[in-house]
């Protein structure tokens, strides 16, 4: 299992546990507040009711007429205690409203964070860097490179496409393999634009006919093999596939460049250096 998959699973689990914890805590607090309110209204809210003044007057008048003096009013039975109300019937207090609002906003925040994390970790399935990118027709790109003496730059793949001489294939078979070698046999190589020293973008030096890093002076020949400077190896590269006459650059995997000393083409600087 890859590291990104583990991080994705852990993020989703943490978001779910956090939302569950907040929801259960808020629900427990609301339920306790509702029960307290029901208990208070069922006991303290009922005031024992006695005879009214008018009833006392009528009883006194009846007693005087009967000669029995002041009638003692009958004591009414104490009121029956009201059963606790259903918490849902009590309505929503201001505290409950605020608590639920906070929980909802917190849940939305967690959901947004989880969605952003998943979107960041989810692999690119189609289009753009991280997929197979169509560069164009092989014949057209090779013709343009030969005419301008400048490798073809494919911005969407962050890649320089350079020509590879057919005469160097026997040496290439000893240093390269896989999709990189297959692309060389088709006459092209796809070089990642980043310098392997500290990641600067490496431009093409037309006078020297080399790739030369302006940051620290690393130099690479036309096919990305190291020729000088602090770089620890040649330029990293991508696999190349020619399908239906079109070049496809596979940017899903960055293939490490050749080690120092590999020089399959024997190309030397053809003019002044730019860096």
Describe this structure in words.
With 275 residues, this protein is an alpha+beta fold. The chain folds into 2 domains: 3-46 and 81-121; 132-255, Rieske [2Fe-2S] iron-sulphur domain (Rieske Iron-sulfur Protein, 3-layer Sandwich). The chain has 6 helices and 10 strands; from the N terminus they run αααβαββααβββββββ. The protein has helices spanning 3-43, 53-66, 94-121, 138-148, 169-175, 178-185, and strands at residues 132-137, 152-154, 159-163, 188-192, 204-205, 210-212, 219-220, 226-228, 237-243, 246-255. The strands form 2 sheets. It has a 6-stranded antiparallel beta sheet with strand order 1-10-9-4-3-2. Strands 5-6-7-8 form a 4-stranded antiparallel beta sheet, with no helix packed on it. Strand 7 and strand 8 form a beta hairpin. Helix 1 packs antiparallel against helix 3. The chain is rod-shaped. The two termini are 43 Å apart. Residues 43-48 have low confidence and may be disordered.
CATH secondary-structure class of the largest domain: Mainly Beta
Estimated share of beta-strand residues: 15-25%
Radius of gyration: 42 Å
Low-confidence segments, ≥5 residues, pLDDT <50? 43-48
N- to C-terminal separation? Answer: 43 Å
Let me know the largest β-sheet: 6 strands, antiparallel
Task: Count every helix, treating DSSP H or I runs of 4 or more residues as helices.
Answer: 6
Secondary structure blueprint with pairings:
Layout (H helix, E strand, L loop, with lengths): L2 H41 L9 H14 L27 H28 L10 E6 H11 L3 E3 L4 E5 L5 H7 L2 H8 L2 E5 L11 E2 L4 E3 L6 E2 L5 E3 L8 E7 L2 E10 L20
Antiparallel strand pairs: 1-10, 2-3, 3-4, 4-9, 5-6, 6-7, 7-8, 9-10
């Amino acid at each position: 299992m890859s590291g990104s998959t583990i991080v994705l699973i852990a993020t989703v689990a943490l978001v779910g546990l956090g939302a569950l914890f907040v929801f259960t805590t808020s629900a427990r607090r609301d339920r306790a507040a509702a029960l307290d309110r029901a208990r208070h209204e069922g006991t303290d809210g009922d005031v024992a009711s006695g005879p009214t003044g008018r009833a006392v007057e009528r009883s006194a008048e009846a007693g005087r007429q009967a000669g029995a003096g002041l009638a003692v009013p009958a004591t009414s039975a104490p009121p029956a205690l009201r059963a606790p109300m259903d918490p849902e019937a009590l309505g929503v207090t201001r505290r409950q409203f605020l608590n639920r609002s906070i929980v909802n906003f917190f849940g939305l925040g967690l959901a947004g964070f989880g969605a952003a994390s998943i979107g960041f970790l989810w692999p690119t399935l189609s289009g753009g860097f991280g997929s197979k990118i169509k560069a164009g027709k092989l014949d057209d790109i090779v013709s343009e490179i030969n005419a301008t003496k400048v490798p073809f730059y494919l911005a969407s793949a962050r890649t320089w496409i350079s020509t590879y001489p057919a005469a160097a294939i026997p040496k290439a078979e000893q240093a390269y393999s896989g999709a990189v070698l297959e692309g060389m046999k088709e006459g092209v190589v796809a070089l990642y634009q980043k310098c392997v020293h500290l990641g600067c973008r490496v431009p093409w030096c037309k006078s020297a006919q080399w790739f030369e890093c302006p940051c620290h002076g690393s130099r690479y020949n036309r096919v990305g093999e190291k020729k000088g400077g602090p770089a620890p190896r040649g330029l990293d590269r991508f696999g190349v596939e020619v399908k239906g006459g079109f070049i496809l650059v596979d940017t899903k995997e960055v293939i490490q460049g050749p080690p120092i000393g590999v020089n399959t083409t024997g190309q030397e600087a053809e003019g002044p250096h730019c860096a």
